[in-house]
Amino acid sequence: MKRILAKDIDETKAMYLVFGNPGTGKTTTAQYLPGKTLLVAIDGSDRVLKNQPDIDVVELDKEDIADIVNQFEIILNTIESEYLKTYNNIAFDNLSHLQDIVLSQLSLMNKDQRKAWGDMQNLIKKWIGRIRSWNMTIYATAWETAETFENADGSSSTYYDVLMNAKVRASVKGLFDVVGQTFIYQDEHIIRLTPNGQSQVKNQVDNRVYCLTKDLFNGKEWTPQLKNKETKGDNN
To answer: How far apart are CA 171 and CA 188, in angstroms?
Structure first.
């Protein structure tokens, strides 16, 4: 533990969580992290990062997946003991899949499925809290869920959020400084950073509403432009 002045808080070491549908640019965003990045490829979608000179990848094999509860602990231990001073950034792709495979293993280990769910929630929250304690730039991805609710007047509203168990999701999102939603608009890969009543995002780093995926870490903002003399909203 150490005490610092508020003016000395390091704003460059933020935690970013980006969620979205497949193909919207979540994994490829990791290539725009400044400096050297170690990416833990939990869901095996790291091929889009092939030939990126500043990214090293930790790939999980079938045996790792089958024993993910123990193997993920080993991964975190190894990062802490060997890599925190070697890399500028650590990335995890993808937290939704991590939750699923942890729950799958725990369900096989426990007859009481409620215990399996509870153990999964505690593990994920503990791991993210541990990662937070590293005090370095963290980038993580997750899948998107869309939930539709009926309003009192008979209309319906759709909300977009991180695809995780609700209790885990609240705890995990609370530990990240930025939670953004990826989508494609006019052939551009965009990240929404400010809530709009539907997308459950947050931005505690700056005041941007949107950015291109390539600009997530450099502070540049993106604003919708007229195309073919038509004004269009985004897809959410």
So the answer is: 31
